[in-house]
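Deliverable D4.2, example record:
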Amino acid sequence: MTAPVVTSTTPTETSVKLEWSAATGAPSDSVRYVVAGGPQPKEVEGLTATVQSLAPDTAYVFTVTAMAPGYEDEPSKPVDTRTLASAIEPVTP
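Output generated by the structure prediction step:
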């Protein structure tokens, strides 16, 4: 398989939506993708995932790895992104 390529990231204050291209040459139709870089790796079947429970205004590095029964591909190139700053200003007494 060729590794997936992350094609876009869409951050909010506490999440990042990632989209990627499909891995090619998979040994079966049951390819799943593992997104790493958030609080816990996330396993999905499609070509998008939203990683949640992230801290505002924080840099994250994500990778996507294609997996099939008995096979794991190399991860995608790392993608840097930053969550948006919180819109709520802290109140100082």
